[in-house]
Structures are given as C-alpha cells and as structure tokens.
Amino acid sequence: LHHDKPAGPTHAVTFDLSRGEVHLDLPSGEDHAGSLVVPGDALAALAEAAGMTAAAEFGRALGRRLGARVSAKLDAQVREASIDAVASALAGELAMAGLGTLVVERWGRALVLVLEGGSLGQGAGADALRAASLEAVLSRATGRDVHATSLSRDAQKLRVLVASAATVGRARAWLDEGVSWGDVIARLHGAARAASEEASA
Amino acid sequence: VSAEPQVQKLESLLARVQHNAALPRPKRAPIAITAIEVHAPTPSFAEDAVTRPLPVVEAAAAHVEIELAPIAPIAPEVEPIVLTPEPVAAKPISGEFAVAAEPPSLELVEISAAEERPEDEEIVDLDDLAVDEEELVAAEEVDSRRAVAAEMADEAPALEVHETPSDVVSLEVQEDEEEPGPPESGRALVAAPHESARVAVAVPAAPEAEALQSIELEEVHAPSVHQDVAPAIEAREEAAEAARAPSVHPEAAPAIELEGTFASALEARAPSVRPEPTPAIEAHEEAVRAPSVRPEPTPVIELEPVRAPSVRPEPELAPEPTVEAIAATPAEEISRAPSERPESAPPTARPEAEALVELVAATALQAPVSEPLAVVEAPPPAAEIVPAPLEPERIVTAVALSAPLAHARPIEGVTVTIEAAVLRPEVTPAEVVAFVGAVRDVHPDTFGALLDAALEL
Lengths: 201, 457
Hints:
Largest sheet of chain A: 4 strands, antiparallel
Largest interface: A-B, 44 and 35 residues
Distance between the termini of chain B: 98 Å
Distance between the termini of chain A: 44 Å
Strand order of the largest sheet of chain A: 3-4-6-5
Number of helices of chain B: 20
Strand content of chain A: 15-25%
Strand content of chain B: under 5%
Radius of gyration of chain A: 18 Å
Oligomer: heterodimer
Order of helices and strands of chain A: EEHHHEEHEEHH
Shape of chain A: globular
Largest sheet of chain B: 2 strands, antiparallel
Structural class of chain B: mainly alpha
Number of strands of chain B: 2
Helix content of chain B: 55-70%
Strand order of the largest sheet of chain B: 1-2
Number of strands of chain A: 6
C-alpha cells in the first residue's frame, strides 16, 4: 500500500517547553492557539457534565482539526483517493489524538466506522463526542455534509453510522424504539429499495 | 616424529569420548514419560502435566490409585443385603403356643393281667392312644389357627390408625399391599371413617349458628340487599340441613349450591381442621354434580349489580362472567380447574362458577371483605403456549476495507460475507441475492464513491 503521506507520529506533535505550549502538525493557518494534552477521563467527565449537545459540539471542533490534517496528508484529494488511503489516514489521525483505533466497515451500502480503545473515557457524553468527531473529520476532509450517530456500544467498540441527515434521523428513531443496530441497517436498505422501486414505477 | 603427539592427543580424546559414552545417562526423561502416562487418561491430569510436571512421588501415587481401582467393586457385595419386613402372615407360631399344644406326656407301663392297679388310675390302650394323637394333632391345628387369629387381632391396632379422617393415612393404606388381611376389608375400614369425618368437619354446630346470626345482622343493616337475598337466606337454611346429610337430599339444588359458602366460611374460621387435599376433593365432587343442582339464574341476576363494583379489582384480568356462561360451564372444565391452581392457593379457592355464587352470597351477607376477595380470585387462565419471538436475525454483509495504521492492506475488490447464519423467515432467497448483489454492483474505487453510496442510502 502506497500512501502519498503515510500516517505517522513524526513531527505530529511539538512540545514547546519554553513557552508551555503543545502544537499539532497542522497545515498552515490551521493551528493558531495550540493544543492541550488532557487526561481522557477528565475530558469524559466534562462531556458528561456538559451534556450531549455540548459534547457533540466539542467533538465536532476536534474532528474538524483532524479532518484538516487528513485532507492535508492526501493533498486535498480525499474523494479521489483510494479507500485504503483514506482509511489509513483517518485511523492515524484519530489514534494520534487518543480517540482509539479506527476500522471502516461497510454493511451493504451503509458506511460504519468502528472506534476501539483510546484514551477518552467511557460514557454517553464521550461517545457523543467520538461520533461527532468522526462526523466532522469526514465533513472537513471530503467537503460533504456528513452526519453520524452511534449504532451500538459494547465494552470495547463503538459503531457509528455515517449517512445523510435524514437517514441518521430514521436510524436514531429505530434505535430509540429498541431496534437492534443490525435490523436498523437492514431496514435502511429496505426503505432505500422501496424508494427506488417507487421512483422507477 | 611430529605426528606422534597428535596421535596421542587423538587417542586420549577418543578415550574421553568413550568414557563419557559409558557414563550412565540421567533417568529424568523416563520419569517424565511415566508421569505423563499415568495422567494421560484423564483430561484434567493431562492439563496438569502440561502446566506443571508432576514429581515422581505423585506419579507413584497415581499408580496406586489405578491399582486400587479394581477394589472398588468389592463394596457392592455388602449392598445386596436388603432388610425387608417379614410378612405378618408368614410369622411362625410362638414357642409358648407350641409348648402348650404339646400333648401330655404319657408313661408307658407294661401291665400284666394279674397286676392290680388303683381304680382312679386311667389306663389307656395303645390303639386308643393312636386315635387320640390324631385328635391332638387336629386340635393343635385348630389352636394354631386360633393363635394366628389372635396375632391378627393383636395387630389390628395398626388398622385402627386408618380410621382417622386424614386423607394421607387413607392413601397410605391403599398403597400398602403388604398389610395383613384382605384388601377389600382395609378399604372398607378407610372409606367409611373418611366420609363421616369430612361431614363432621364441614358442618360443626357452633359456627353454623354464627353464620345464621350474621344473616340476621345483614337483614338489619342492609335492608335493600336483604330484600333481594331473602330467598337466598331461606335457601341457606336448607343448605345447613343439606350439609348435615348431603347424601339424603342431593336434589336440593339451592342448598347444595350454597353449601360451599358455609363450608368456605367454616374453613376460614378453622382452616387447620381440614387437611389440604379435602377441599380439592370436595370441590371436585361439587363440580361434578353442579350441572344438575345449579340454582335458578334469577336471584343471581338481581345480586350481580351489588357484587360488581366492590369485588372485582382488575376488570381486564377477571372479565365479568355472564350467567349463561356460568351455567354452561361443563363439569369437566370445572373439575379440571383445581389441578391448575397453584398449590399456594387458599383452601377456599373455587372454580369460577362456584366463586361467583360464593361471591354473591358473601356480598349479600356482608361478610368480611378480605375473605371473599380471596375467594373471588378466579383460577389462573390456561397458560397459552406462545412461541418465543424469533431472534432478530440480520441480513448483513460486511466488507473489510482496511485495517488501522501499519496493518492496512490493499483490497483488490470487495469481499462480501454474510454473517447471519439463519435469515428471517419472511426474507426470501431472492431478496438475499438482491441484497448481496446490490453490494457487489457497487465497486467503489474511491473513497468519494463509497461515501456517496452511503449518503444516498
């Protein structure tokens, strides 16, 4: 596998001890205020206390930074890049941010991102932060209006569905009804098939 | 000359090699093999051998266990000795009886013709003696029979136990086939006391008087109800008479129908008198004869509005039965109901039809609310066998696209795997093929195509 700019930790983070700052290796104009090294459980506690909306907003802000780095690594050709290249770039940036390892899954036509491990603590707020980060990473890297929602959560893995706003809304409604995430994906495909049949008729 | 020292070196080296070869090798390996052989048959021992090599001592102990194993079958030789009670009929006659039945000893004396004997001395001829011996034998047999009868009579108190009104005891008697005496007689001894005891418990004199007093109180405090219940009160007096001799007046329909009310009230006062199986048997008997003795529906209809608002806690769980439905309840269904009730049900629980009658009477009498409420509880509905919902099977296709970081690998195409082993019943194979085909039709070469397909979903 050949990457134009393979993901790696070289010069990814710069610690300026004389000034007490931490800087990420971002494209020009992206890093203005520096970064922070924050304990993951403290950030999870903050996300829980702030609520889902605030945690999601924080995640989007974080994801936008990461998406800019991905875009920079792929020379702003994320859409034209191969799936493997984008997946590797995304996984590298998320891992360096401490959000865990990334696996890209495709269930039928649905795109599912799986985050496993990471330094961020557990909790609904933390998961909202993760999902929003993935959403913002893809939005920033590809320039598309991408939405994401948590599909399932177990001890290690968080599955996040990446889809349009309408699809994410339907999926959230089914998940709130107690439908399993596998059935949600199956229903999404059934609804899409019915819509296509109506359009053809 | 120069080669000689080398030859000597070689010879010395060879000698050392031979000496080392002659040295005995350590016996460690055979010991380990022995230990493994000992513990190999048992999986748990095999695991121990893998994780922790056993020392020689443990291996020897294992050998001892294997050698001692055949000794185990020796123990069952003691078990065949089974002590069974000796049948009473096979008991021998006691020794005292045998001694008493011995013929008197006779002294044989030769008597000459000239010899004089005292007049009071009895002389027995040998021929006559033989006859007497036969008579003695016959008498001995008669005595032995009398002795057996006496022993039977001595053991009769064991049968007297069955005269108690306990159903448990009666069941034991019927099951015990080794009891002496003919089985028919034993059953006869059980049946009659059981019936008499049941009647005596069901209709004691004092509680009946109390029940009638409660009826009078009802007449004073609830005149409107009394007006409707007046026929029922008269019927209840007849019920008391019928309860005294239920077999004499089986055709007294209202009395027998209301008997359950009295019986339940009496049972509530003295629940410990009657054993638990008895109410079930009584309910069964009443249920069997219920169709022939059911009362006229008219008074029940008049009393039903009184009953409805006060005794039905959950209408959806206990739907109000109509009179027609109660009258049409088959006897088999009623008789089956007690067996479906839980064992913890109160002894006054009745089938639905009888519970309604009791409920009407109890409401008319304004009995304590707690007891009728316990009676009103309808038998639990028949358990419906509802098939368990099928596990939500998923038709899923997973495409491994990439692994994170250094484990990323190129993918030459799309790998489709169906993870669900069992598909939903309503999903046809054609739909599965279409589903998988939809995945295969899309071959996103770029991440943009993949994202577009996901956003169009």
